[in-house]
């Protein structure tokens, strides 16, 4: 079943035409990566879906058009978003950060606070310290976990491994694999191929504000021309 | 704070300099803390609104004035106590409506438009208040229940009403602290101070929270107006008198910092109160070192008393802070 369907999506920053007709679909439980070089519009695509950048086009989520709705309503439809800047709330504790991910305290979802803390011993040890003092990797884990607390059916994660040490990149990859194992669909925005190729069912490659390639990770691996033209630096 | 409780010359002769000095320190400290807490009631709302909405609300002090006049009017009809409750609710409702139907629309046109909007609003409120209640001070009285001296120190009677003002400010301060630190909505407000977009992405209605914060912030300013009205002067220029000091408080404390606003409020409250009660001048302290200065072109500066320059002290502090610590005492951002 198609969960998210984006049709002819355009977006603008001032007069610059950033997205020039993006089309993509994500099925329930599917892990999809959106690849491409810096500045081709990958982040803008997820921002437009989430309503942070005004979208022009059709965005169907579970059959409903969510294009142009305010962000908080889109979140309530079941879409989770982890932005690239690790926007933790620095003055709040790790526990409070996670609690704010819950949309409705009377009806929490399948991800519980204790689960989350058990999964990450680092976060558990620092549950009551202000989140501002965490390391980059811990902040990344916290932002992903916080979004999961809202029980999304599809979570869009923007550049989760940027600037992280290889060992932490591995841990983030494991977390994303665990999210997928629990049946949550994922749209992963990445520049590096390593994690994307390891966990994705399908990949999209973007160039100049459009989708220029769609296929399985193996298809991409075998297509040297696409990699050379749109991915390799 | 207004000099009325300042020990006078007669007492000086009766009690001698030591007791007078002690009396001056006790009374000025009480008045300074009280004035500081009133400033904080207003500055807390102003600084939180700035953090969340990114707009410096020039009309904030106008809600302080509305609180005082609503309180006065309600006290005429139903007595002081209903006014204490109803006036802040009314002013807060107007504040929330201003955010919902005014600022939110203006916001689309950028910060300059917002600034001009609040600037215009401040003038509009002042004019409306003078049309309804006139330009002369209204007779807003302290309730009879509190019209007695709380205690007498040496020869100065300290009014019970001022102790009541202090108590109300402290209770509201503690309530605000608990609401911000312990409740879910308080946590959401704290989170939205730094990352409003992220809060929305997590499914919280940030616009509604903005409206709530604006409403509560203006209601707090109105509380300050209701309790300060009978003690100070309730007049249509009262917003213009206190407004500039408020900006000094939030800039000195650090734009967007609540603890900073608290410290700066007390600092400026105490600074101004102590300054008005000090009669000394440069000449009286350093006079023997340079008697010729009293006759020179510097004589004005040399002989002016601290009390006379008290009103400019906060602005002097503002200038120094902007030069040496532009982000304020506890602020984190530079703009």
Could you explain the architecture of this structure?
The complex is a heterodimer of chains A (233) and B (335). Chain A has helices at 42-50, 71-77, 94-101, 113-119, 121-125, 136-148, 166-181, 194-199, 217-222, 224-231; strands at 2-13, 16-27, 31-35, 56-61, 64-65, 79-82, 154-158, 185-190, 202-207, 210-215. By secondary structure, chain A is α/β, with parallel strands linked by helices. In chain A, the strands form two sheets. In chain A, strands 6-7-8-3-9-10 form a six-stranded mixed β-sheet, with helices on both faces. Chain A has a four-stranded antiparallel β-sheet with strand order 2-1-4-5, with helices on one face. In chain A, helix 3 runs parallel beside helix 6. Chain B has one domain (25-324): Orthogonal Bundle (ABC transporter involved in vitamin B12 uptake, BtuC). Chain B has 15 helices and two strands. A two-stranded antiparallel ribbon of chain B has the order 1-2. In chain B, strand 1 (149-153) and strand 2 (156-159) form a beta hairpin. The model of chain B has no long low-confidence stretch (mean pLDDT 85). Chain A binds chain B through residues 50, 52, 70-72, 75-76, 80-81, 83, 87, 89-92, 96-97, 99-101, 103, 105, 146-147, 150, and chain B through 184, 187-188, 190-191, 193-195, 197-207.
Q: Determine the N-to-C terminus distance of chain B.
A: 32 Å
From N to C, what is the helix and strand string of chain A? Answer: EEEHEEHEHHHHEHEHEEHH
| Rounded radius of gyration of chain A (Å) | 17 Å
Total number of beta strands of chain A:
10
By DSSP (H or I, 4+ residues per run), the number of helices of chain B equals 15
Average pLDDT score of chain A: 90
Helix coverage percent of residues of chain A?
A: 25-40%
Give the N-to-C terminal Cα separation of chain A.
Answer: 36 Å
Q: Please state the structural category of chain B.
A: mainly alpha
- If helices are DSSP runs of H or I spanning 4 or more residues, what is the number of helices of chain A? 10
CATH architecture of chain B: Orthogonal Bundle
- Sum up the overall morphology of chain B in one term: globular
Note the quaternary state here: heterodimer
